[in-house]
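Review form for a predicted model. The reviewer records the input and the model, then writes brief findings.
Reviewer: anonymous (R2)
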Amino acid sequence: MSDNELGLFLRTRREAVTPAQVGLPTGTRRRTPGLRRAELATLAGVSVEYITRLEQGRDRRPSPPVLGALADALHLAPSERVHLHRLTKAADAGFSCRGAAQPPREVRPTVRAVLDRLEPAPAVVVNRLREPLAWTEGYERLMAPTGLLDDEGWANLALFVFTDPRARTVYPDWDHIADEAVAALKQGPFRADPHIAALADELTVAAGAEFTRRVESVPSLAAATGITRLVHPDAGNLRLSYETLELSADDDQQLIVYLPADDSTAHALDALAGRRPGGLRAVSS
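Model under review:
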């Protein structure tokens, strides 16, 4: 894995900001996709050498004022600012606040009751290993035909994406889905967690470079919301808006809810459920 998550995060965000976004001339013959290091240094009020040290991992504990200046210069969203701060606090890669605790696989009764109330929407509870633990009937109708739930006792979202050939048909945006799967696994201590490390080893062997190059290049910040395109074996092309909700720290689990992103997807999901159109309404992200 990359042992320089702070530098990786800063570099990828620098390359994602265009000169026009920060009021700089675009110019010609730019080899950098986004801002040059010198441009970021000027905007943040630090030296180019310091930006280089941060990105190369030779300085991993910038002060809060410097972090604030970098966040302002990179136009970071609030969630990205929080993540940037956490990366500096997690500079010791050998520390894990979870210790050797097993990933929780029991879902509390109240969380299951919430799932019941979410029908007929597809919704699933996953742990940090990306194992589906409990889900709605709507989620089963959506994902069981794809093969994800073939072996419910061993289902794993990351393993399905990287090791099941059906996943590339199910997800037309497979590269993006794979990036997000790696970002979700890295969102935390990653290999300092022995259970995540074991899964990462399995994926390294099973998926090879498709997994390992993403570990080195994808920042550890998975999107909490967005749109997933899915080709369902029975319902065809679907566009699903998703929301990822963090449960309590003791649960160490997430609730992911999917809603139709357009009318055709809403009608398709209603048809899968054997309902008249109108059970699920399209939402726009």
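Findings: The longest strand covers residues 236-246.
Further findings: Strands lie at 123-127, 132-135, 225-232, 236-246, 253-260.
Recommendation: see findings above.
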